[in-house]
Structures are given as C-alpha cells and as structure tokens.
Amino acid sequence: MDNTAKRLLQRLVRRIPSQMLKTTLDKWSRLTAAQRQSMDYTESKWALTEKLLAICEENELTVKHIAELEMIHVIENPNLGMWYVFQLMDPQDDAHSVELTQFKEQFKSHLSELIRHVSIKIKKHTDEAVWIRIAWGDTFSRPNHLKPTYVVHYLQTPYVFLTSPTSKQKPLLSQALVLSTRYQAIKDANLSGRKLTAIRDLLMKQYLQVFPTKFPSPLAERNCVVSNLHIEKEQAGSAANRHQMACEAFGDGILPQLQSAVYKLETKFRDHTNKTMTERDEPFKCVVKFASTNLLESLRHSASSGVASTPVTPLLSSVPLKGKNYFVITDNGPGPSSQMKPSQK
Amino acid sequence: MCGSAYKNRPQPNYCSCVVPVWVNERPVREILTCQSPRTTRTHPRTARRRPPWSFSVARTPTDSIMAQRRSKNKSYRQSYRSCLGAASRLSHTPGWTARRLNTSRRTKSHNITEKVNPEDLALLVKTEWQLSYVTPLYQFRHTQLRSYSRQLSAFITAEKQQGLAVEVEGAQTSFRVSFSAVQGLGETDDDAETVLLQIHSKPVFAGKDEAQKLVWSGWLTCINGNPEYLHLLPKDFTCLPLFGSRGAENLTSLVKSWFQQTFDCCFGPLEINQTCLQWLAALWTNCHIESSIQHLKMIWTLPVEPPLQITYTVNSQDVWELWNSVRNPSLESREEEEAARSIDIEEVTRFMQGLKSHFYRHFRLDLSAGRLSQVSSALGSAKFSGRIKMSNSRYVLTTLTLLTECALLKMPI
Least CB-CB distance to B366: which of A271, A284, A307? Predict the structure, then answer.
C-alpha cells in the first residue's frame, strides 16, 4: 500500500463514526469473514486504523479499493459538505433514452479523453441516482485521491449535483457530462446547500405541497399555544388565512433544509416620502442574504405569523417554486416597473 | 453599590443588588431596587466612603445609618438620571424624557494621529473590544499608575497560584502589567484621561529567552462625558465609565475584580442597543465622503422559528446618496461648517426607515419586527452583544463619545 492509500485510509477512519464503521466495512466486502471478526470496534480510532492498515496490507488492497470505501461512506451520508446544482439544457432526441451502461461508458471515455490521468468510479444507488467519484490528475501527476469531486446525476432528469468543483475542472466535467447525457449545454442552476437530500427534494418537489383551493379549509395548526381565548377567536380567521397562504407558498409538513438564500438587488429606490431618491436614475444596489438552520421553515413561519405580509411576495416563494437560492433582481425596464421579476443570470 | 461591604469576597461582575430591568430600551431601576440585607451590615469604614447617592432617589433607605447621614448632609448628590430632569426626583419612576441618548451629535472628524502616541492608537484601532460600563472609581490617581501596575500583577499572580500547595519552579507564568495614560485622546478638560492597560506574559512552554507577549489589553475612558454629571461627582471620584477589553476571559474577570476591590466600583456588561447601532450606521455613512466605507452591512435577526438572520449589505455610493437625501436642509453657508454640522435623531430615523422600506418593497417583510444585531462598514463594526471595532483613527472620538453616553446611561447610579 502506498502512502496515498495509507493517508486516505487514515483520514477515512477518522471521519467515519465508530458506530457506522462496522456496517460500512461490511458493505465494502473486501475483508474476509475472519478479518471482520477480528476487528474490535470498541477500541480507539488509532488502534482501529492500525488494524485496518495491517489487514489491507495483507489483502494487498490499493488506493482504488480505499476510494471505494470512501464512496460508500459518502453515499450513506450525503449531507456533509456543500453541493452545487447544475442543470442540463436542450436535450437532444435520444436524451431520454440514455440508460446506465451507455452513460457510464460514454462518460468514462469522454473524461479520459479530456484529461490524461483521471480516476473515475461510477456506482448506481438504489434510488435511481448515479454516483460518480472523480480523482483529478493532470498530464504530469497521478490522480489526487485526497481531493475527489463527487457528482450525482439522476438519469431522466436534467439535474446534476456537484461537490466542490474548482474553476479548472468545471469546464472539463461539464463537457463530459453534456456529451454523455446527450444534452447540448449545462448551466449553473443557482442552487446550493449543505444537504443533498434537501436540495434534491426541493428540486423534485418531493415535499408536501399545498395547492390553492376554491373552498379553503383551515389547515390544522401544529403547535397550538392557546394564550387568550378572545384573541384566538378574533384572530382565527386571519390566522388561518395566513397559514394557508404560507403553506401554499412553501409547502406543508417537514420542509427540505436549505441554509441560505441570496438576492442581489439592482432595482431603483422608490419611496413617495423621499423625492430625491425616487428621481434618481441609477439603481440602488444591495445584497440581501437570508440565513437560517432551515430557511424554508423560517420563511413559512414568518408568513404565517404575520412578520412577512401575505400573499407571499414572489421573490421569497421563488425559492421553492423555482428551486433556486441565488437570484439577481433587476427592474423590468421602463413602464409599469413597480413589479419585480426574478431574472436569472 | 452595596456590594462593597465585603471587600474580600469575590464580587460578581455586576452589582447583583441592583438589577436594571429594561423596558423599551430604558432601564427601570425602580421596579427592582436594592433591598439587600447587606446594607444593614455596613462596615463603618466603607459607609463613610460610599458615595451618598448610591440609592435610588425615590426610595426610602432601609438602613438607619444611611437615613441619618442623609438628614445631616443636606446637599446630597444627585444620581445621573435626576440631574437630567428634575421630575425624576419627585416621582417614583424616572422622567422618561430624561434618560435617553443625546438627540443630536456633532460629526466632526478628528485627526488625532498627531496628538496621540501612535503605538497606543495602533492598539486601539483595528481590534475588536468587548465593552462594559464602570461606575466611578474612588481615589483613582493618574499619578499612581506604576504602583497600580505592581499591585495588579501581584494580584493576578496570586490568584493564578491559588490552590497550588507547593511552589512549582519555573513553570509559573509571570505577568507584567502596565498601566499607561493616553494623552491627547479627549476633547474637554472635564474628561479624565484615558488609561490603557496591558498584560504581558510568557506562554507556558516558552524558551528562556523568548520575550513576553501581549496577552491581554484593555482601556478605561471617558470622552465628552456629560459635564453636569461630572461636575456633581465628589472630588475623590474619577469617572471613566467605558471599559473595553480584549483577551482571555479569566484575565478580564481578574482585572475587574481587582478594580472592584481597590476602587469600590462596579462593572457590568454594556450592550449596544438598537438606537446606538442606528446612530453608528448613520455616523459611518456620513463619513463616506472623507473615507470610503466600502459598504454598509446590517444584520437583523427575526424572531421566527427557527430564527432567521438577514444580512443587508448596501453599496456605499447608494447608501451615501440615501443619507444625503434625508438630511435636514442645511443652514450653514460655509463648506467646513457643512461638513461638521450636527446630525439629529430624526435624520437617523428617516435614514433607517428608507432602508427598511426598500427592503419591504421587495420582500414584504418588515425589518422592525426583528432586531438589529450588527452594523459594520470599512470604518468599524458594532455588535449588539457589546463588541466594537474602530478601524479608522479619525472617527475614534465620535464613536467613543457615543459609547461613553451609552455607558453613563446604563450605569445604575
């Protein structure tokens, strides 16, 4: 085992919590039954690392096998690190009939053509997602397994999720993806987050959505804190209304956990009390960032509690509607420019 | 300040007998005033020393000794609040109109780089300080700073060695404390001179020849303090109400307890309230012409579940034009006067309102429902928790004036 493999293994054992180590190693299935029995998971991490290193030496495992182990761990825990979403555009005729084997071959061959030394591993997960682990090298050096990029693609959808793409690797990766999926272009979908499951659910709308109905019935409040019966009675109607509109905008139940939304505003300042600023021609440039442990939950609560006026402004409801969390907002141009349309750049 | 009765007891950082309760950003001390039984066991020596205005003006003192002294001493001192408004003396609740930050401020920038020692100034700017308020110090002499340095370093060394039964050779860290007076940082003669404190010590595993490093620094200051209040202080008291510290928390509490024991004062945390943060936002924006602020960043926290944090960063040129548009029409004709004219609270309110309304127009979310927790620009940053950073030496005096006022208001006496 060379140095890289050892370092990778050490780093991996440090990252994986002890409880999960056993299951991960079993899934890996590169250890014999006897070796698996000999691992005592109550020992310290350091001792475990040493043991594992010895076993891997015995089995003559290489860095490629360790990379497999890392991939298994990441697939089990996709909610670490930052994920960025890209969208494939303009499908060609046979884009929808691309199936797994074809995609794998095409992707591997295209990427290897573009870069000499690159190590690719593709795995299909149970839920129709294709996971790709790429270790990048260049003309002079071997692939660097310590800084891999993970790509997740759901076949039949135009979305691709990436971790930490650098500016050098992005164009090569984009090229390979576009060619192997039979689309014509790829662009930044302006959505990023820490939890892969959350942004995936947001994009594929896999959360409880609420649709406007002709005969609205108040949705059941989850935490009923009865403070004053008179106030409750008086406010029942408007509270139910706000709650309904908040849920229409953001969804009901448990919402996908986004961490932030950024709006770059370049609209004109308009305020009837301030003539000087209203007559200005230049836009009032500012950047607004909303941050929270669960952004959609906060926004929904602010709408239902009245902090945000209902009906919810399209700027905020675009987050779940369009599945984006980075927006550049400009004025619509001259004319009835009292409305703001989110435009993407 | 009843806590002083027990000189050798470890004092909490705030005077636990007086609990300021904040209502609408004004402390209402009369709701929970000191009824501590400690007052009845006043040490006669400290009774003489204690300033006679340490009780709320509207309360009848429970201590018979104090009652006696009061009747003897006719011209008793007034509390800070009462000197701002006569009504407070006669009623139980202080005059609400009296206890407030100044509604208008002069905005002259001061080039103090010539007047102040550049090393001291370098220490002051570009670092983030944690603020506290301090009640007036009894018998603090600027001439005895050397002796204070020795006393404080002995105190710290003693406290650090507490619990060690055997003298450990070599492994103990010695602390060198230096007090110094910063001259030139101040405008009026009423203000006491700023005092700078520095603690140097060797890191634990340092070599023999390694120099001592600065591990803790702090300062006590009073810039443009209310002259009425300062004149009413008895002769032996020095008012340095603003305390800034940077460094390990245990050293900060040691320094504070030494001060409390030696000068019979009281420390307390100083939060920078909403009005103060808005003043800073306006003051910094006002300086954009002289020194670019690069951007004005405000962080608001909304009380939803889970809490939502909104960072609102505005481009410097645009926010400067907005500020200019809300100013009152200028009565000054000359340009220098124009630059130095005062800012009123209404202008600040209109400015913040303009920013909030632009936000509301887009997001239909009223920022007033939340709380402004941080304001920052290239000239400095201020957080609600009481952390301040001044990045430009020209505006140090204006910022410190504002903070001195906050400290004087927050002091319970």
Answer: A307
CA distances from B243 to A190, A301, B287, B387 (A): 46, 40, 25, 11
- CA nearest to A21, candidates A51, A1, A63: A51
Spatial CB neighbours of B107, under 8 Å, sequence gap ≥ 6: B283, B286, B287, B339, B340, B341, B342, B343, B398
Q: Do B321 and A280 touch (CB under 8 A)?
A: yes
- Give me the interface pTM, i.e. the ipTM: 0.76
Please compute Rg for chain A using Cα positions: 25
> Which of the listed residues A203, A224, A253 is the one where a domain comes to its end?
A203
Q: What are phi and psi of B184, to 5 degrees?
A: 95, -10
Q: Where do the domains of chain B lie?
A: 2-98, 116-269, 274-384
Chain B residues close to A303, C-beta within 8 Å: none
Rounded CA Rg of chain B: 23
Nearest C-alpha neighbor of A174 from the set A270, A107, A236, A97: A107
Eight-state DSSP code of residue B173: P
Structural domain harbouring A28: 3-76
pLDDT in tens, B223-235: 888 888 888 888 8
pLDDT string in tens for chain B (413-residue length): 444 444 555 544 444 444 444 555 555 444 443 444 444 333 444 444 444 444 434 444 444 444 334 444 444 444 555 554 443 344 333 333 345 677 777 766 677 677 778 888 888 888 899 999 999 999 988 888 899 999 998 898 888 877 666 655 555 567 888 898 888 777 787 888 889 999 988 776 666 667 788 889 999 999 888 888 888 888 889 899 999 999 999 999 999 999 999 999 999 999 998 999 999 999 999 888 888 889 999 999 999 989 999 999 999 999 999 998 988 877 666 655 555 678 888 899 999 999 999 999 999 999 999 999 999 999 999 999 999 999 988 888 888 989 998 898 888 86
- Residue B316, chain A, CB below 8 Å: the answer is no
Give domain status of residue A237, yes or no.
no
| pLDDT tens digits, one per residue of A113-128 | 888 888 888 888 877 8
Domain count, chain A: 3
Q: Are A191 and A130 found together in one domain?
A: yes
Average pLDDT, chain B: 75
Chain B residues within an 8 Å CB radius of A301: 304-305
Q: What's the length of chain A? A: 345
- On chain B, the residues whose CB falls within 8 A of the CB of A341 are none
Query: Could you give the CA distance from residue B294 to residue B288 in angstroms, rounded to a whole number?
Result: 8
Q: Which residues of A sit within 8 Å Cβ distance of B?
A: 263, 265, 267, 269-271, 274, 276-277, 280, 282-295, 297-299, 301-302, 305, 307-309, 312-313, 315-316, 329, 340
- Distance, CA of A125 to CA of A71 (rounded, Å): 11
Tell the residue number behind the tokens 């032996």, with chain if given.
Answer: B236
Whether B112 and B184 have beta carbons less than 8 Å apart is answered as yes
Residues A90 and A122 in one domain: yes
The residues that bridge with A83 in the sheet, in sequence order, are A163, A193
